[in-house]
Every structure is written in C-alpha cells, then in structure tokens.
Design goal:
Layout: E1 3-5, E2 13-14, E3 28-32, E4 35-40, E5 49-53, E6 61-64, E7 69-70, E8 74-78, H1 86-95, H2 112-117, E9 119-121, H3 126-170, E10 175-178, E11 188-189, E12 204-206, H4 227-230, E13 240-243, E14 252-254, E15 262-264, E16 268-271, H5 280-286, H6 290-302, H7 310-314, E17 317-320, H8 323-366
C-alpha cells in the first residue's frame, strides 16, 4: 500500500474566533476541538465537513453532516479543500495518528504543518472510496450501538447504587449536621506546586485527574512531590479529598494508607474526621448520593461552580446516625459497591475492546485488507 502526505488530498483550514457573546443561536452547530459547543445562525464551512481538533483535545476528528461554524481551536475540511470523498477521508483520519506529539509548549496542540505531513493511504477510485465509507458506516454503527449499550449499563448501575445510598443513609437518618462539626481539624487546601516530578521514592502528588472511575489511583498519571515540600500536605488513612475547582467540583476521593505515602494538590480540599463521631467511609458514601449533589448544585447557583471553597464544603449537611449504625451501613454499602464496581469494570473493558474493534475495522477497510463488497456483517 502506497502512502502519501495528507496535504496531497486535503488542506486543513483554520477555524474562526467566535466568543459566546457574539453567537446568535441558530441551526448551525458550533464545533471546537471537543465537538459541538453551541449553535450559530451562520456557518463557515460547506456541508458536510470534517472538524479536526487543533488545541486542547487536539487530533480529535468530528463529522459535521450539516456543515458547521468551526472555531479557532479546530481545523475544518470540506469539499472546497479536499479532492477525495469526505466520508472516506473521515475514516482515514480516524485511522492515522493525528495526535503524535504536541508541537506547542503549554496548551497541547496540533500544528497544520504536522497534520499535512501525516502519511495516509493513496486514495482508490471515488467509487471504491464510497463503497468503503458505506461499509464502515454500517459496521461502525453496529459497534457504536454495542458501545452505547455497555455505557448505559455503566450509568444505570451507578444510578441504582446512588439510589441505594440515598435509601440507606438519608432515609433512616433522623437528624443531620454540618460537615465542619465532624472534623478533627479545619478543612485544608493542598499544595500549589507544579506536577513535574516522577520520582517513585518520593510521596505521590494526588490530583483530581489521578482518580479512576473505580475509585483507585491511575498508575499512568503518577507524579511526585519532593519530601520537604510534601511534608505539610501528607495524607493519612481516611482523609477525604474534595475537588474545589473546574468541571469536577464535588468529586471526592477517600485516601487509603495502603496506596503509599501521598500529598494532595491545590485544587483539592482535605477533610480529616473525628472517628469517634463519624466513619470516613460513611461520609464518602454520602458524597455519592443525590442529596449531596443537590446541595453542591444549589450552592453553585450562588457561587461559581469553578471555585467551591472550603467554607461551602464545611457548611454542607450530612445525615447523622450513631457510629455503631454507621458501621453496619458502611458494611452493607461496601458489599453492594463491590458488585456495582465489578459490573462497571467489566462493561468498561468491553467498551475498550469494542473501540479497538472499531479501529481495526476502519484500518482493514481503508487499507484494503478486507473486501468491503463481500464483508457485510463483520462479527463484533
């Protein structure tokens, strides 16, 4: 299979600046590197169009069937800037590695020069391009439906567990108290230090992005903090961390000593509890309930969701029962959580395998490894 630079068949055009204040809601979707981010009354591409992430989520590929207004965090390709079937090219761009290595210091980005130099398969005839695109539309749709089914299972199991927490913790509680009255010491902010070390012998530096969906720490995001800096921010078993800034405000993480020495970052707030009054696991379970999230949302109306401070967390109300009853509730919920996490982990593994299957299908079809005229209903 002969390869040629992308620039031989398509040119990436820069998007245009369009702040939220200047948008006039309409029928045209506004696309950035992360996908659709609103609408506008006019577009800046023909229909259909391909959108490629330039900044932030760089290298991502989106299909805009009705055309789009592409903002300046992305590139656009349409019929004016390509000599091939756009739907075929859309699949080609998903096959190649547009991410590569970021060319920018600071905000990750994809330079147009780098993208234009990416090698892609030499296009077959237009008729064959359309056959390949049609085949992939059908087969990828089947894979996508399977992925969506697993994602629904993940969501529904999470909802069921949240409802169980609500019923077990909030329902039976005769009283509630403010979080700050359960603390052994005032809520504390983490270290305002750059995440630039990976010394395994130093304390781990925990950030919000380090916490996986199953509540464990991601090994691939490991960074550390020099011991002399980390000392003030060292975590103890049962410390509960709250996210205070960004889109994940309200997210919590219960630290366990068997994860090894660790300190916490500045976008997190630490709660250390009086264990004669409350079990940390009890509060951690409550922070997964609908009642907890309703309080976060209500407080965020009068605050800024990008900055939920220690005072606001301290004033959140927690249902309260005696420690002996807390212990029984924690045992029941821990057993249910184990089952829920097991189901969700299996579903996530299946999603990962299906995504790999989709990529393999695209590669095989685009590179001619399978005959798309006969390979209908490929097993997924």
């Amino acid at each position: 299979m002969e390869l040629i630079p992308l620039k031989r068949i398509a040119q990436l055009r820069y998007g245009d600046a369009l702040s939220a204040e200047l948008r006039s809601p309409g029928e045209v979707p506004v696309y950035g590197s992360g996908g659709v981010s609103g609408s506008h009354h006019v577009g800046n591409t023909d229909a259909p169009a391909i959108v490629v992430g330039r900044k932030g989520s760089y290298g991502t590929v989106h299909w805009a069937q009705r055309g789009a207004f592409v903002i300046d965090t992305a590139y656009a390709i349409d019929g004016r800037t390509s000599t091939v079937d756009l739907r075929w090219l859309y699949y080609v761009l998903q096959m190649v590695n547009l991410k590569g290595s970021s060319q920018d210091v600071g905000v990750p980005g994809l330079s147009r020069e780098t993208a234009h130099g990416v090698l892609v398969p030499t296009p077959p005839s237009v008729e064959e391009q359309r056959r390949i695109a049609h085949f992939l539309d059908i087969e990828c749709s089947r894979v996508n439906r399977a992925v969506e089914a697993r994602q629904r299972a993940i969501h529904l199991n999470g909802e069921r567990f949240s409802s169980l927490i609500e019923w077990q913790l909030v329902g039976p509680a005769a009283t509630s108290t403010r979080l700050k009255f359960l603390l052994a010491r005032p809520l504390e902010y983490g270290a305002a230090e750059a995440a630039q070390h990976q010394e395994r012998n130093w304390p781990r530096y925990i950030r919000t992005t380090d916490v996986a969906p199953d509540g464990n720490l991601r090994d691939e995001t490991f960074v550390s903090l020099p011991p002399e800096i980390a000392r003030r921010y060292m975590l103890a078993d049962g410390d509960l961390l709250f996210t205070r800034s960004g889109a994940t405000v309200g997210k919590t993480f219960l630290y366990k000593a068997d994860w090894g020495p660790a300190a916490f970052a500045g976008y997190l707030i630490r709660a250390r509890f009086r264990k004669d009054l409350v079990l940390p696991e009890y509060v951690a379970f409550f922070c997964q309930s609908a009642t907890y999230w309703q309080q976060i949302q209500l407080e965020s109306v009068s605050a800024t969701i990008q900055n939920f401070n220690a005072e606001r967390y301290g004033n959140l109300r927690v249902p309260y029962v005696p420690v002996e009853q807390q212990s029984r509730l924690v045992a029941n919920l821990s057993a249910a959580e184990k089952i829920t996490r097991s189901i969700q982990t299996l579903a996530r593994q299946q999603v990962s395998l299906l995504n790999e299957r989709r990529k393999a299908l695209i590669t095989a079809a685009v590179t001619g490894q399978i005959d798309v005229t006969t390979a209908r209903g490929v097993d997924v």
